[in-house]
């Protein structure tokens, strides 16, 4: 679903709605009207991010969230109303932001960022803004942005405190570079428990306020505007963070060290990527990879697949072939005895995997704009974007 309007080519007429901001010497309102921004998260930060982008006149805003409005959101989210409880956050945010500015195109997307956000999708946006509440989603968005070569601005709030960080590939530090040993330990522990329920993921909820969300999201959008003008504005904040303490009003800027060995610093040449029809078998994609690289290849997926689910107690195994992130703890339990079944994961498909190669990306639950990479023994790569010849906004609007 989309809520659309025609972006204006704005001048400096005093009656124009953007007149005051257009008085800034380097401000280019037409550039903002032509921009595409992806907002991941529609909670307290996401509300403020979309509100500010809409008021500023950013032409296309896609807002992504998997959750529904709860009563506790009402004290922190400017775009939610009492009657919205139970409604999809992304949809409500898009509708309310459209009331602020009918000239902006707003596209709500309901889904898990770890399944929807891919390098192929991110490459169609100018930048990404994050209003996320967990490390897993942040790391996923970080890797997708790095592979696509798109900047992203992360926000985080707790109580009266907040942090805003800017990451610009390929040269600045990235989100993973900022993670300390404890962050890595906690992330590894959560990855080891791959079937966390949504309730378990939210068990570590932190206190937040509307005021801290407004401060941090305001800074995020301010940096987004500067990034959209980065060829004319000499105010680079890449690889840096702004920390704010609302209790004492202390604040400081931190510069993050880029870790050259960081695994998130992988970049794809998506300008050279070829599209692949999701309804065509993976065997064809493997053959296209051989043709492009001139030899035997394997296919690397962005998503880890669960090939099979097996119950040791019942001595029963079923073939699944779906993304691990789709699998819930309840679905992983054996329907006969209730025991947790063992998973057989796989992320690389070789020529010997004939059963998988006979399937299509759609059969495996891979989405439009997911990237599949053909890789040869020497490490050379060729990238393919699933349904990459489609209009990404049309797909996001319909979900089909």
From the alpha-carbon coordinates, what is the Rg to the nearest angstrom? 22 Å
Mean of pLDDT: 92
SS-based structural class?
A: alpha/beta
Termini separation (Å)?
Answer: 11 Å
Shape: globular
Account of the protein in words:
Helix 3 packs parallel to helix 4 (89-100) and helix 3 crosses helix 10. The chain has helices at residues 19-22, 29-33, 44-56, 89-100, 113-116, 119-122, 135-148, 181-192, 198-201, 210-228, 282-293, 329-332, 354-357, 392-398, and strands spanning 36-40, 60-65, 105-110, 127-130, 152-158, 161-167, 240-245, 250-255, 274-276, 297-311, 316-323, 342-349, 371-376, 381-386. A hairpin with a 2-residue loop joins strand 5 (152-158) and strand 6. By secondary structure, it is α/β, with parallel strands linked by helices.
Give the secondary structure arrangement, pairings included.
Layout: H1 19-22, H2 29-33, E1 36-40, H3 44-56, E2 60-65, H4 89-100, E3 105-110, H5 113-116, H6 119-122, E4 127-130, H7 135-148, E5 152-158, E6 161-167, H8 181-192, H9 198-201, H10 210-228, E7 240-245, E8 250-255, E9 274-276, H11 282-293, E10 297-311, E11 316-323, H12 329-332, E12 342-349, H13 354-357, E13 371-376, E14 381-386, H14 392-398
Parallel strand pairs: 1-2, 1-4, 2-3, 4-5, 9-14
Antiparallel strand pairs: 5-6, 6-7, 7-8, 10-11, 10-12, 10-13, 13-14
